[in-house]
């Protein structure tokens, strides 16, 4: 290839295009290999009866999906999943908002409080879960404290209702710091003039909060709620370490059930069908979030 | 809202915050202190907020019951490789999507964004089959390759793209007139300016890898390959019951270094994670 030919062919635009493709090539190849191909495979597997131990792999069409509808455990699992996600998002949002309002005060040493409230975010997830598991034992630290107050605490992780409360609370304290910071930023972006005007009108602080603060930060609250719900659908380690889905299926959320079916009972076909279910739920929520974000950004502009 | 609070209100705010702090700070304190307690004191009543004596033998047992030093190294090197790899791959892809015009750029970007719609839990079954076929089960490859190239890095790419879009293009135009190649513009001009975004990406990628749990227990089966989160749950007695003080000692060793780095560089962590790490 002669030099003259080269300069003609490699125009700036062409060189740029080539550079662009080279820059994105590793990422694109990765997405195709580790995301898109597996997603197609998971759908393909879901159409098969596949037991690794028995070494069977038979095309059964929609049978796994019929099984999904008839699975006696699934309603309970979806119920636990919904309860976990809802409990988590409500508690997480309220606590994050409360903390953000407190941290938004002009006070000495407030940065130290912020650091401490945020600190569980960086504590290793399983370490955090193990300590809470230790605290929540029948004779553990929490019941020890309660005994001081003359209350005999329950065996937290061994009873359906308290087990669910426990896994929610452990997860909330772990990650509420992230939402707290997002809310704090939202609070600080509310124009001060609005409060000044309200004060001149003599509106009490609570009314200011309800009429000014909440409406102004509601887009942030809505978006963070969806992100938090999507995150809650992926919670696995906490359940695996604290309750193993028990007692019964009371804390068996969808991801944990999927793991059990595929990797403990070796039903890869049915496990794949559950993956598709999880994918549909997460995709719908994420899509809703994108639509919402578009509308809000538009609204803010 | 931004007025000086009355002294009574101040006491109220401080008081509320101190009470609320308990569930955030106490577990970490309890983890560290209980790890020094002998077994007989671990469930003692009344609970000992400060241990009666400091017993370091639990820390010795952590390293003899499991190849804990090896497991520590596994977690550390995997997290380091994943962090470096993700920074490289996603800053390049993020830069291209933000700056370079090439055919189908938007369509390809949409395809890449699909990674955000598909959590790794959804694809764990086929990924297991894939790595089984490649002979990479019970190796660290799945824990390295999937985060760097797969779904977890998409978020990093998105963050980098947003950052490069906000960067004034004039900075690069002068260099283009001088005839610098794209790659040189990227490495010499754009990348050094992207330090804050890279720091955020580094922090959340590291934490993500350090906390990975489902993938290790699916892919790894021998103790000397385990990563820390998986190893922590393995300190059990003959009946499968947890050996609490040893688990807590191992948990302390896992959590404390990151916590210390956080306290030193807390501003970067808080801002970096809050601006980018929008994860549940």
Automatic annotation (TrEMBL), chain A:
Topology in the lipid bilayer: Multi-pass membrane protein
Record's keyword terms, sorted: Cell membrane, Membrane, Sugar transport, Transmembrane, Transmembrane helix, Transport
One Pfam family, short name: BPD_transp_1
Domain of life assignment: Bacteria
Coiled coil: none
GO BP: any one term: transmembrane transport
The keyword NADP belongs to this UniProt entry's keyword annotation: no
Domain ABC transmembrane type-1: from-to ranges: 78-289
Location (main, coarse): membrane
Keyword GTP-binding on entry: no
PROSITE patterns: ABC_TM1
Membrane-traversing stretches: 21-45, 76-103, 115-135, 163-187, 220-243, 263-288
Localization terms from the record: Cell membrane
GO cellular component: plasma membrane
PANTHER family per UniProt: ABC TRANSPORTER PERMEASE PROTEIN (PTHR30193), INNER MEMBRANE ABC TRANSPORTER PERMEASE PROTEIN YCJO (PTHR30193:SF37)
Family as reported in the entry's similarity comment: Belongs to the binding-protein-dependent transport system permease family.
Protein name (database record): Multiple sugar transport system permease protein
Source species taxonomy: Bacteria, Pseudomonadati, Pseudomonadota, Alphaproteobacteria, Hyphomicrobiales
From TrEMBL, chain B:
Transmembrane segments: 12-32, 76-97, 104-132, 144-164, 185-207, 244-265
Gene3D superfamilies the UniProt entry points to: MetI-like
Gene Ontology BP terms: transmembrane transport
Record has Transmembrane as a keyword: yes
Pfam families noted in UniProt: BPD_transp_1
InterPro entries linked to this entry: MetI-like (IPR000515), MetI-like_sf (IPR035906)
Keywords, comma-separated and alphabetical: Cell membrane, Membrane, Sugar transport, Transmembrane, Transmembrane helix, Transport
Topology with respect to the bilayer: Multi-pass membrane protein
Compartment(s): Cell membrane
GO CC list: plasma membrane
Domain ABC transmembrane type-1: 72-265
Family: Belongs to the binding-protein-dependent transport system permease family.
The name this protein goes by in its record: Multiple sugar transport system permease protein
Source species: Phyllobacterium myrsinacearum
Lineage: Bacteria, Pseudomonadati, Pseudomonadota, Alphaproteobacteria, Hyphomicrobiales
